[in-house]
Amino acid sequence: MEVDFLTKEMIYQKSSQELTALLYEAAVTNLKTAIKQLENQQYIEANQAMQKVNDILHRLGVGLNYESGIIADQLDALYNYMADQLIEANIKKDASLAKEILTILEEITGAWTATMKAKPTLKQSSFRKQSSAYEKHVMVSDRELNTVEVGK
């Protein structure tokens, strides 16, 4: 029971970037398990592992910030493609299709990890985001006041 609490506590302390990295790692791990199970003709276990990967892909898609530009649209399309291919691999029990998805996932995971290492510390980054959010709120409030004054 205490281990679950510590795990949940650790998760709550992670940044969104770190949580995304954990999701990528879990997807890769589960997909490797699924491929191994497909090759061993353990189809029930392979199905369960692929369902976990599909769930992770869905969560990654839901977590995208579409205000960040074209990269979010491209990642969404890529997640959807991988989910579709994963369903096809599951139906056909085709390990080669699953391996293609694994290659893509490993590339994304590597790029994400490298980007996280190259960025400034997370505390600096989150401070900038908080400042930016505060400034946006102030600007919106100022605009509302100006609108009211203009209308008088």
From TrEMBL:
It is found in: Cytoplasm, Cytosol. Transmembrane segments: none annotated. Keywords: Bacterial flagellum biogenesis, Cell projection, Chaperone, Cilium, Cytoplasm, Flagellum. InterPro entries: FliS, FliS_sf. GO terms for biological process: bacterial-type flagellum assembly; bacterial-type flagellum-dependent cell motility. Its main location: cytoplasm. The keyword Ion transport does not apply. GO terms for cellular component: cytosol. Belongs to the FliS family. NCBIfam families: fliS (TIGR00208). This is Flagellar export chaperone FliS.
